[in-house]
Amino acid sequence: MTAELTRAEKVQLLRLARQGLEAAVRGQAPPPLADEARTPALVQPGCSFVTLSEQGELRGCIGGLMAEEPLWRDVQRRAGQAGLHDYRFIPVQPAELPQIEIEVSVLSEPAPLDYATPDELLRRLRPHVDGVVLRQGLSRATFLPQVWESVPDPEQFLALLCQKLGVRPDAWRREHLQVETYQVEEFREPEFEEARSGLDRPTARPTT
Predict the structure, then answer these.
(1) What residues pair up with 164 in beta bridges, in sequence order?
(2) CA neighbor of 145 nearest in space, from 109, 183, 180
């Protein structure tokens, strides 16, 4: 994750996510980002999670942990995937689109969290700050930092993340799992009234 995004860049990403979601639901291709809107923060490689909610309930969430394409394109693509390919939900239907609210989380690069004992792991976690990745072999699972809001206890947090990984809830105590942490910059449509209007040009970053 780079320097903090400007308000205009956040609005642009929310609009791109909305475009990606609506295009995917309607079976269309989303438009590319206009050349004049391509700020350095939006065109450099980045990774994101896009979360959809409807009437306060989760409606889809998909993202990635590795930056493989420009941030703007990653956000746009993840939004379409969240609408159609979250296995926990049926695909979003066109009639639902006006009720869907979008949240974008832009991730920093995950960094290994070294620990010697389970108790040290608990001490080193930072609730409400860190997203956490657990790895076992080729399998991995993650919770965004926002999950701490509903699961504030670190032991329960790790137990649920182990279950998501497909291992026993106490595997974090019984085995030395690989752990990584990352941080996010998250923002959502209700915070930006202009996010659902037409695309505009993000403010360029200062060069000094």
Answers:
(1) none
(2) 183
Both tokens assigned to 110 = 């995950």
Q: Is 43 helix (H, G, I), strand (E, B) or coil?
A: helix
- Spatial distance between the Cα atoms of 79 and 30, rounded to a whole number of angstroms: 11
Cα separation values, 7 from 11, 36, 45, 56, 127, Å:
6, 17, 19, 24, 26
pLDDT tens column, 92-122:
999 999 999 999 999 999 999 999 999 999 9
Where in the chain are the domains?
Answer: 7-108+184-196, 111-182
Fold of 7-108+184-196: Glycoprotein, Type 4 Pilin (3.30.700)
According to DSSP, the residues that pair with 105 across neighbouring strands are 49, 186
Please, how many CA atoms are within 13 Å of residue 162, restricted to the half-sphere of its CB?
17
138-166 residue pLDDT tens: 999 999 999 999 999 999 999 999 999 99
CB-CB neighbours of 161 under 10 Å? 23
Q: Which helix (H) or strand (E) holds 164?
A: helix 154-165
Give the pair of three-digit tokens for residue 61.
């969430």
Per CATH, is 111-182 categorized as 1.10.8.100? no
Alpha-carbon distance 36 to 46, whole Å? Answer: 19
pTM: 0.87
Distance CA 102, CA 85 (A): 16
